[in-house]
Amino acid sequence: MMKSDEIVKELEIAAANAVRDLIDYVPNLEIGSVDYEEHIGRDQIDLRIALSRGGVNYALIIEVKPNGAPRFVRSAIYHLRDYVAHVDQSNRADVGQRLIPMLVSPYLSPESRAICTDHNVAYLDLFGNAHLAFDSVYIDRAVADKPKAESRALRSIFNPKAAAILRVMLRDPDRAWRVTDLAEKANASLGHVSNVRKALLEREWIEKRADGVVLVQPDALLKTWRENYRRPSGHGITGYTHLHGKQLDERLSGALNPQCPRAIYSLHSAAQWFAPFGRDGTHTFYADESGAQFLQEALKLTSVTKGANVVLHIPNDESLFDDAIEPALGIFCTSPIITYLDLWNGNDRDREAAEYVAKECFPWLE
Q: Rounded to whole angstroms, how far apart are CA atoms 170 and 339?
């Protein structure tokens, strides 16, 4: 196994090579010296690459970060800013060079790239995303795909156990949460809450305060979640009922239950109770096995090859029932968060309904 300092050195070499390849795209921009781990007093940077073009001298002041999460990117940017300021105030012979701060990392998410751009810091990742702009030089490149490691990291944040924690926080975005309180509310282990907390801190979606962590970017969290969301796995039952609209709702009023047997409205059938966008001809529910049996009997559901108007989904993740809401007496629905995510990942009409749910329930979602 490679030692950590050997891994860091290899990353710095890979970063230097990637910068060279990027510079090759710019006509008449020549690379001079490449210096590793340059020091000025106590300050240090990982790379300094001298450039020249048309008689003008430049220097890329480069910080290399193994982890490109927003939290570490912001720290690197502050370090680059301080280092450049120190050089500008020194009496070094090469102070006449124009200094260009730059961050290099194995992968930089769109959020991390935006932080760099906001602070006028060039960036490059080893996956192909890049931004370098000075004088007449302009490179801006974005790669649509994510590396497998990033996809795995996002899946771990949004897996069912973690999702229960996120739903708790999104229900009350302004509340400060201690690990123990969040674990109790989400019915999760302290270790799992700590892991989710760490991942959210790295992405700057939450912030540490004296009384706990607070969700400071609920919009960024929900937008990322909806792009990585998959409707709950499980199995379904479809059928036809002669009951419709008010008649069906009256039949189920007081009979739906998020506990036992578990059966609640979902999708459009849920949204109509707290953000009515327009009735849908299909009635949809989440249920456990006993809840599905109850609904089949209560709705006198019959099997049909065509024209089914009831869909019962029996999810493997039963934590979805734990944050069900009761928008009307005796009526239980999926929470606005689950309803929004389910609808967002449907067809065009579903997405329009999701946007209406957001407008009604999430004023903080831009």
A: 13
